[in-house]
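Hi R.,

As promised on Friday, here is the backbone we talked about, encoded as structure tokens. Could you run it through your design pipeline when you get a chance and send me back a sequence?
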């Protein structure tokens, strides 16, 4: 292919050609890759699930980028990317095909996987996060070639809690401190929705037990590695792990105490 014209015109034509190839590989437009937020229909009575501030509807991009906003992080109406649940699994090109759909050319399959993977991961929202959320949405999806005709796919979901977080206003100049709670039993593979739901319920129960002591608690992050245990900092191996968080004075002593207390409660439950 030979492109002619000015540099600007050539660049524009290349972009158009590339966009057409990607759309053909993915079976749709790039703009439609990320699915819309999914309402799980579990809004608490006092806080509807709609994301609205001061009467003005805000875009999802605006919401999830507010990572340092305490009010946003404890909100029971807003999506926030610092409240997330991630799922990592492997897929083949066949997993991404719709019924009767032809396999795309080999040189387009990775692009195809990038486009199709987010929608393929959406069931993890509806069959798992319903235990802790009123609403969820993928805000990030990554696809890596794992070899042997497989792709390593990860999706990160922001979620709106269906549980009470508690009061952070009594603490000034604090920060969110997290405790790492992995399931180190490698026999637990979390292949079924029931297993994943049970782990999230366990994390929510841990917060329910810690909240009276600290005044607040939330599930900041949970992660499931569905194709085998992942290795975390310190050498811990686990197929599922969670980070529960409390807002409190920010100092190493408090952080160590909270980690030890959360670990003790986790071990007992």
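Update: got your reply. Pasting your designed sequence below so it's all in one thread:
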């Amino acid at each position: 292919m030979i492109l002619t014209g000015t540099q600007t015109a050539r660049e524009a034509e290349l972009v158009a050609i590339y966009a057409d190839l990607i759309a053909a590989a993915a079976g749709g437009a790039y703009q439609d890759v990320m699915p819309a937020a999914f309402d799980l229909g579990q809004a608490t009575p006092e806080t509807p699930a709609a994301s609205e501030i001061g009467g003005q509807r805000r875009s999802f991009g605006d919401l999830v980028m507010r990572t340092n906003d305490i009010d946003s992080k404890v909100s029971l109406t807003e999506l926030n990317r610092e409240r997330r649940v991630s799922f990592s699994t492997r897929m083949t090109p066949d997993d991404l095909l719709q019924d009767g759909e032809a396999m795309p050319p080999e040189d387009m399959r990775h692009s195809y996987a990038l486009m199709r993977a987010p929608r393929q991961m959406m069931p993890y929202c509806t069959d798992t996060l319903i235990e802790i959320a009123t609403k969820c949405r993928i805000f990030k999806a990554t696809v890596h070639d794992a070899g042997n005709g497989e792709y390593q796919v990860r999706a990160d979901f922001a979620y709106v809690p269906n549980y009470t977080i508690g009061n952070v206003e009594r603490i000034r100049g604090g920060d969110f401190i997290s405790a790492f709670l992995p399931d180190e039993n490698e026999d637990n593979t979390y292949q079924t929705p029931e297993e994943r739901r049970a782990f999230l319920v366990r994390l929510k129960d841990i917060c329910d037990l810690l909240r009276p002591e600290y005044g607040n608690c939330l599930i900041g992050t949970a992660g499931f590695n569905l194709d085998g245990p992942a290795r975390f900092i310190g050498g811990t191996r686990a197929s599922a792990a969670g980070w529960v968080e409390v807002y409190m004075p920010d100092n190493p002593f408090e952080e160590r105490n909270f980690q030890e207390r959360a670990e003790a409660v986790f071990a007992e439950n």
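One thing I noticed while checking it: The longest helix spans residues 193-214.

Thanks again,
M.
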